[in-house]
Amino acid sequence: MREQKNSLRAIILTGLFAAIIYIGIWVLRIPVPAMVGKPFIHFGNTLTAVAILFLGFRNGMLAGIIGLGGFDILNGYASTSWLTMLEVVVVALIISGLFRAFKYNDSKKNIIILAIAAGVTKIFTSYGTSIVEALMAGTAIKTALVASFFSLPATVINSCSTAICTPILYFFVKTIFASVQKQGR
Q1: pLDDT for res 148
Q2: Which of 64, 100, 141, 165 meets the CB 3.0–4.6 Å disulfide criterion with 46?
Q3: Which tops the pLDDT comparison, 65 or 41?
């Protein structure tokens, strides 16, 4: 799918992934108390990583922006949705860059490395996002740094689930897609 960015199939799959990402957050959302923001545990990051791996940088990133950003806009997080969308761009850059470095070899080992990289990247981007959110609320910089650090538990849980679930979902989606393509011929 990476080569056919503008094909009808790629556009439909981008929309489908965006919807699945949105639903993945909406259906399973477990709030976690935090000093900054209103974090919660969800599968949106995992599904975004799968979309990026499967659809490529541009379409996977668009699916993540629409799914995660759309959820934020429609569910009370509109003022910080731009930060979520920016996080998706950073994660997409990291995953796509590493995948390109691996010459798009989707061996189990490489996909696991990519999933771990996505999880770790998300920890750093969420920390930065929390700092910006705290500063937007008028918090002093030192307080924002400390409060944002103590607001990371939900992100760490999400990142661990991303590292574990992304390889499983990627190979599941790849198998389904191969089966559908085989039946279409």
Answers
A1: 86
A2: 165
A3: 65
